[in-house]
Every structure is written in structure tokens, then in C-alpha cells.
């Protein structure tokens, strides 16, 4: 598939993709274990010049940066588990097998809620749960719903990616590198809500 940058120099920033999500956590050890064991991320080296406790994890073409802040308990003590609300802020990951995700969460004894979104006869399965610090995580098969831009100046891409420099990006001096995009991230990463 081809992704063609269609904006001119003055309209949009020369972005390539989402690089990482940074999360404050009460315990880097607990949170890193969660992202490794539940979501399959891998710990990677982070800059040694950092003078604070943290961890970097990577997989699926995205990074998770954890920053330890034990004082979070002073502001938001976790007395009891928060309700799992699909309309809450969350980060979403594309999955090829949502039913398997549900079985694995059950095996780990994790609480979750499910939802089904239907659009023109297409059904999307969603599973929502919290990480150790209460951040919402969604696993879904949202790639079933086609990306239909509301703006005529945006051209969506297909499912087998390679980046191509357009005439507009060449004028701006923007360099795009050749890269095969991972199917697991597709367009669902746009579900990030802050």
C-alpha cells in the first residue's frame, strides 16, 4: 500500500507515525511486567542520562515509556478498582484474534468489559481493561471498519504499506523512509484519546 502525503508545507507538520506513549506509574516494575506479560512488549534500553526511575518498552511499531511517580497515590489513591468505561481515555491496539485476547485475560484473572460496534453491517469486537495504574487499554479488530476521511484533501492508504515522497513533501524537504507497516497497528492507533 502507498501512503502519500497530500498536504502542502503550510498545512500540516511532516509527521510519519506515532512514536511512543508516555505514562506516569506508581511502580515501574509492576507496570513493565504488565506491558510485557499481558501485551507482549519488550523492555529496551533507555538513555542512561535520565536521572529518574523509568522504563522503555517496544513492540508493534510503538513505544511505551513508563515514568515512576510514587506520589500519584497522594492525588489518586486506588481504594477499589475503577469501573471499566469504554468512553474513558484509552490506548487501543489492533488484534487479529479478539476472542483469544479475552481467553488470555480470563486465564490471568483480569477484569474486562466488551463492546461491539456495528457500522453498515460490519461488526467490530472491543475488549477494555486497566493497567496497574488504572490506564484504560483497548484491544480490538477495528481494521474491519474502512477509514473514510471527512476531508477531501486526505487520501487514506490501503493495507500493505510503503511510504512515498509526494511532490508536496519534496518541496518541503520532508524525507519519508521505506518501511513496511505492521498490520497490528493499522489505523486503530488514531483511537488514542487524551
From TrEMBL:
**What PROSITE patterns would the database entry show?**
VOC (PS51819)
What Gene3D superfamilies is this protein classified in? 2,3-Dihydroxybiphenyl 1,2-Dioxygenase, domain 1 (3.10.180.10)
Among InterPro entries, the record links this protein to:
Glyas_Bleomycin-R_OHBP_Dase, Glyas_Fos-R_dOase_dom, VOC_core
CDD domains in the cross-refs: VOC_like
> Start and end of every VOC domain?
17-142
Q: What is this protein called?
A: VOC domain-containing protein
Source organism (scientific name): Linum trigynum
The organism's taxonomy opens as: Eukaryota, Viridiplantae, Streptophyta, Embryophyta, Tracheophyta
Amino acid at each position: 500500500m502507498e501512503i502519500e502525503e497530500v498536504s502542502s508545507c503550510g498545512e500540516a507538520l511532516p509527521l510519519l507515525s506515532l512514536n511512543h506513549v508516555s505514562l506516569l506509574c506508581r511502580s515501574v516494575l509492576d507496570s513493565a511486567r504488565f506491558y510485557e506479560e499481558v501485551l507482549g512488549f519488550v523492555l529496551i534500553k533507555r538513555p542512561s542520562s535520565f536521572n529518574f526511575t523509568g522504563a522503555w518498552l517496544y513492540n508493534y511499531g510503538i513505544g511505551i515509556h513508563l515514568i515512576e511517580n510514587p506520589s500519584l497515590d497522594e492525588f489518586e489513591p486506588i481504594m477499589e478498582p475503577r469501573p471499566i468505561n469504554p468512553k474513558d481515555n484509552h490506548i487501543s491496539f489492533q488484534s487479529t484474534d479478539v476472542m483469544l485476547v479475552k481467553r488470555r485475560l480470563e486465564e490471568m484473572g483480569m477484569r474486562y468489559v466488551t463492546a461491539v460496534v456495528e457500522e453498515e453491517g460490519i461488526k467490530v469486537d472491543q475488549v477494555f481493561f486497566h493497567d496497574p495504574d488504572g490506564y484504560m487499554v483497548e484491544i480490538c479488530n477495528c481494521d474491519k471498519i474502512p477509514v473514510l476521511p471527512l476531508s477531501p484533501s486526505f487520501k487514506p492508504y490501503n493495507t500493505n504499506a510503503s511510504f512515498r515522497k509526494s511532490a508536496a513533501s519534496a518541496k518541503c524537504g520532508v524525507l519519508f523512509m521505506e518501511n513496511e507497516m505492521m498490520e497490528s497497528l493499522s489505523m486503530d492507533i488514531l483511537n488514542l484519546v487524551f
